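Issue 218. Parser rejects a valid record. Input:
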Amino acid sequence: MQKLLYLAVAYGLTATAPALAQQAAEKLDQATLAKIRDEGLNRSKVMETAFYLTDVCGPRLANSEGLKRANEWTQKQMALWGLSNAKIEPWGDFGRGWDIEKSYVAMTAPYYHAMIGAPKAWTPGTNGVLKKQVVLVKAAAEADLDKYKGQLRDKIVLTEVAQEPKTTFTADAKRYTDDELQKMTAPAEANAARPGGDEAARNAYRARAALRTKMTEMFLQEGAAAVLSTRGGSHGTFFTSNGAPYAADAKPVLPEIEMAPEDQLRLIRLVEAGIPVELEMETKTKFQTQDLKGYNVVAEIPGTDKKLKSEVVMLGAHLDSWHAATGATDNAAGCAVMMEAVRILKTLNVKPRRTIRVALWGEEEQGLHGSRNYVKNHFGDPATMKLLPEHEKLAAYFNLDNGSGKIRGIYAQGNEQVQPIFTEWLRPFADLGATTVTPRNTGGTDHLAFDAVGLPGFQFIQDGLDYNTRTHHTNMDTYERLQPDDLKQASVIVASFVYNAAMRDQKLPRKPLPAPQPKS
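Output the parser choked on:
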């Protein structure tokens, strides 16, 4: 007991009398929280887990061999840690798998220079080495394509760069300032976007997508050999995306490489100057069509309370990634933290009242498929709001999917009743920089699948670091971008939140059930 008291004092877990009274109302187990903190900060395995997810398993595109390796490794690892019911659970049909076996592109005239790029996802290979002339296609509307008819056969098509890279005078990486975090605590109404404010941007995006579809069809019909494109980036960084649908019956497309914009722009300048440009490229890609299902990996620490053990506290992150790097910050970081959180709890041999279930989601990058279908299979369908018996048993879901930055707080997702609860749960971690509970909603992560059927699902606030400027969906999303101390801090906070939710007398409060959202 003396050692636990020392840990509580040393780690800032003591508080003023009013704060202690509020904590007592939440029945926070300070001794266990101190042990969680000690284990997570001083004997962490989070970077070891991240190494296996990134360097060993490799890129983890939806239904790829890399994702299969990661599914198998995480299931076995959590079983070795002693978690129960560790399994790879199918969620339903997804589509074709796809892997890169070879990728190479270089300019060979007017001189030789190797270039940075990777095949677009779900595009075919070149069926050997291509050494072809380049032709530049510039089109602002479908009518502009007519002038290129008869000029593309057996050529490598070079497309425009929508946004040229510019010199930056600020660091790629940044953390939230105290002022920024304070502003996030404002009432939700003050943070609401104006209705329809982005409609013009959405319409412009739809128009570009429609033109791109027409261009793809025209290139194929005209007999082009391959396509070079870019979605932007800078300093050798490029963004990756789908180059074709992953459906089993998807229409054929041309081989396509996404390039670093600097390389793409050099080619464009040479062509526009009237200098003949020749490229050599070879891509070899492989489609997997034998198993079209998608999968999630789940494992549990069983509850021990006779009345509450049938209830579940969930934590999760998506395991799939894009293919031009090893998906370190998106989202091996989140998976490593969630796995570390349950490892900490299992190592400490805690006896949670409720069952704790960790889930590593598949196929998130194509539309939250893993989590949305898990929710549909276990809890209810947001299209009809027809709920299943397990819906009543979920106490909470916690998600991590915004890079490698430390946790600074949590989004309450418009749930006013959880704000004072989360404020108390964060209080022991003020010295680690986690203090903020915002009423805001946040989008784009797997907690939305739970929120869509009225379940209490939450995403943590994280320092952005260089997630949005350098690593998110790029060829730079590698192990080196991970921040060990931040991931240790996040693991401790997640483990503590999960433990608090599992030990609480009541499930976390819920918002009113949403109305059905039929698919359009």
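Fixed in the parser; the record now loads. The radius of gyration is 25 Å.
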